[in-house]
Structures are given as structure tokens and as C-alpha cells.
Amino acid sequence: MSETPTRAAVHTQPVDGFGTVRVLRLDPHADAATVHAWVREERAAFWGMNGLTEEQVAEIYAHLDTLDTHHAYLLEKDGEPVGLLQTYEPEADRVSECYPVEPGDIGVHLLLRPPGPHGTRSGWSSALLSAVASYVLLGLDKRRVVVDPDVRNEKAVARFLKQGFVAGPAVVLPEIDLPDVYLPEKHAQLAFLAREVAFPGDA
How far apart are CA 83 and CA 192, in angstroms? Predict the structure, then answer.
């Protein structure tokens, strides 16, 4: 459980039949145990943090917190942590080498927590994705969401397409090897969600 449950949300959205979803700025240190528990699981292998310690996870998100172009958030449902959201400006990311970035684009990475002992109920991921889309497209006033899940992560790709995303090309994101950041080459499936598709009345 987050150690700072009273922090202000940047976005709050009641979802019919599901509960209230809150988007909170991630606290790299207070939330490290929660995030580490999720990313160390085999199911989160595509997140790329399987072998990291809790301290290393905290350091990564502390660095991310210094950037103006990349941001991390904790997703809560009725006060309980349920997911990790990262947003980024595509032109400041390696994905910009793989597709023509348009004004109003925003990139998103989404990791949902492992299912509980009773499994995940139907519509869980769809409800969270709806809240995320509302935040980034309406709350941040963006025109289009771009996602780049690993091509082998068939569940994530299918989840995005079911939500209304349109598949783009399969691409190879280049390796990044910098003093503060190392990212291996990634074979990704791009997909896009336009604001007018997600929210026709607010386009």
C-alpha cells in the first residue's frame, strides 16, 4: 500500500460498476516497494526490471522524476494501488526514430498489478485504460496516444486494440546506452488512439 495515500490526485474518475480511479504522481521512494513487487514478477518481464532491487527501482524513478518530458504515476482504485502509468513526449524518446511524431502526441507505458487471489474481474483493464485515456487526452489536452508494447506481449497488444487503438507498424526501437539510462533494443508493435475516436464529443 502506498505510504502517502493522502497526496493529491492529478486525475480522479468514477467508472460505472468499477469504482473510482485516481491518478497520482509516483513518489519514487514511498512507492518503491509497491512498484518493485509488481516489476519483479515474471509476468512483468516486458517491463524490463525483473532483476532489479527495490533500491534500484527507486533510483530509476527518482531519475525519471527529474525529467520534464517523462512522468510516472501510480493508479489507484478506491484507494488501492492497481497500476503504474508512465507518460512521455514522443519527440524526446527513441520511439520518435520509428514513426512521424505529430503535434499533440503523447506516449504511454502501462503496467497493471498482478491479479489478486481471486483473479481479475472482467472489464478491469478496460476500466483502467478508460481512466488513463481520459487523463492523457482530455486532462492533458493531447490529440493522440501512442503505445509501443513488445511484439511478444500479445496480451498487452490485444488489450490496446480492444480499447480502440489502431495498430501501426511493428518497429525496432534502437538501443539506448547513456550514463544515466540503458535500454536494450526493443521489437515493438506501435498502436495509436486518437482523441476523436476515444471521446467523439470532446474532440
Answer: 21
Segment 166-192 mean pLDDT: 89
- Identify the CA nearest to 77 among candidates 39, 30, 26, 124: 124
Burial of 55 (0-12, 13-18, 19+ CB in 10 A): exposed
DSSP state of 8: P
Q: How far apart are CA 145 and CA 129, in angstroms?
A: 11
Supply the pLDDT for residue 176: 84
pLDDT of residue 150: 95
Retrieve residue 85's grid coordinates.
Answer: 502509468
For residue 113, give the DSSP letter.
Answer: P
User: Within 10 A of 172 (CB to CB), how many other CB atoms are there?
Assistant: 12
Span 154-165, pLDDT tens digits: 999 999 999 999
User: Cα separation of 103 and 183, whole Å?
Assistant: 25
Query: Shortest CA distance to 133 belongs to which of 157, 112, 106, 155?
Result: 106
pLDDT over 70 percentage in the chain: 91
Helix, strand counts (H, E) of the chain: 5, 10
Q: What grid cell was written down for 141?
A: 489536452
What are the Cα distances from residue 112, in Å, to 1, 37, 129?
15, 12, 10
Contact indicator for 134, 55 with CB cutoff of 8 Å? no
Q: How many CB atoms lie within 10 A of CB 79?
A: 11
